[in-house]
Specification:
The protein is an alpha+beta fold. It has helices at residues 6-20, 26-36, 88-106, 111-116, 159-169, 173-183, 221-228, 236-247, 287-300, 305-315; strands spanning 61-68, 74-79, 131-137, 144-149, 193-201, 210-216, 219-220, 252-253, 258-264, 273-278, 330-335, 340-346. It has one domain. 31% of the residues lie in helices and 19% in strands. The strands form two sheets. The protein has a ten-stranded antiparallel barrel, surrounded by nine helices. A two-stranded antiparallel sheet has the order 7-8.
Amino acid sequence: MDEVSLSDQLGDQLRRLCEAVGLGAAEPLELLESLLGPAGPQPLSAPPRWPSNIADDHTPVEFSVAFSATEPPTVRILGERLGVPPSRLTNMIATQRFLDTQAHRAGLSTSRLDSVRDLFATYDPQGVFALWCSLVFRGGRRPEFKVYLNPELRGVDRAPGLVSEALHRLGLGRSYRAMLDHGIRPGELGRRDRLTFFALDLHDGAQARVKLYLTHHDAQVRDVIRAAGVVDDVDPGGLAEFCALAGGGRTRFAGLPLVGSYTLVEGADRPVGYSLYVPIRGYVDDDEEAYDRVVAVLDHYGFDRTVLDRALAAVARRPLRDGVGLIPHVSLRLGAPRPGVTVYLSAEAYQVSPPVRHRATMDDTALATPTGRAGAGHL
């Protein structure tokens, strides 16, 4: 009997996930195979070829389902193409070649990426990654592509200056300054508040975005409410309710960090959208508890939980109570262009993290931090 490969496992999950939300699977499967590249045929009995930070078990792909009041649910893949041999540099080059190929085939616009590409190019990238990409699949539309660049690839201390220059070139300098004034706790830039993702949509449509992500370590809910306050029409009470539902009533997230992202567009002096990502896997005992919290979030915002049930059935290979991390994040999207909720799903191709067998108090500042990434979810 042939061994199951990484592409076999992920392809089967993606096919069933597309069916669960009513999408055709042919094009998503073709793009997934191309994204996986030489890692795809590797048997799952072998260890991961590279410790990808996309998932706790180093699977180089993460799935997510986005719920919106204005359109049916969408499916997204976050991925990192691995080089030969894999390294931060060869992975960056391999992912860039994948994107260049898709840009040529699909007529993607890389003009904004090209204008900042040199800032994020180095032969010695630092940090946990250099370049990731995401693919978004909506019913009746062509796939959408986004790139994720690492502001810290030249070092943590150089990230603010690098981002400042990139946004200046894109005509977004004023929005960046406004974001820093609200989003950074005094004296914490590069410490507890980190610039971790710089994302660009690869199209020139009216809803094309630049997104900047801040990771908030050891943050309280009031910290993210202040960070989100730079965006018009963000309801502080609503954001606090989301944190309470996803975080089990916590007011402080001392383990895995919260992540906030800002949507920036030309002509605006301030960000026009904000999203908050809660690493739910770090604050539950198992995925059964995570599921209950996500259902509470979906119910609160008026979304159909049966879509979540079908999505979990498509991806999961175990009972929810038998592990933690199948649902790594849940996010709330506020403002332009598509407010709603996104639920992230781990493929768990290589490993399942065991459930936590103890329960910490709600605001325990010594909350145990699970092994693994700080959280991309990102994303």
